[in-house]
Amino acid sequence: MPIVTIQVTPAGVSAAQKAALIEGATELLVRVLDKDPALTFVLVEEIEPDNWGVAGQTVTSLQRPQAGAGGTR
């Protein structure tokens, strides 16, 4: 019984896109591992940008416009 977890930020991810991720991950496990789709579980977790980071900063702080920054990220 495979369990797949897909983590995304909630911004810009629609219910239809989540459904497509679940369908696609299930199809991949059926095709590659010959798993029964009725026993294949796919979880889509929404991770808020405050709850993860890189280079010692939260993603929220990295997404904020920097004062005096001469361009976009």
UniProtKB/TrEMBL annotation:
InterPro entries named among the record's database cross-references: 4-OT, 4-OT-like_dom, Tautomerase/MIF_sf
Keyword vocabulary terms for this entry: Isomerase
Domain 4-oxalocrotonate tautomerase-like positions: 2-59
Gene3D superfamilies to which the protein is assigned, alphabetical: Macrophage Migration Inhibitory Factor
Keyword match Nucleus: no
EC code: 5.3.2.-
Entries under Pfam families matching the protein: Tautomerase
Protein family membership: Belongs to the 4-oxalocrotonate tautomerase family.
Descriptive protein name: Tautomerase
Biological source species: Caldimonas mangrovi
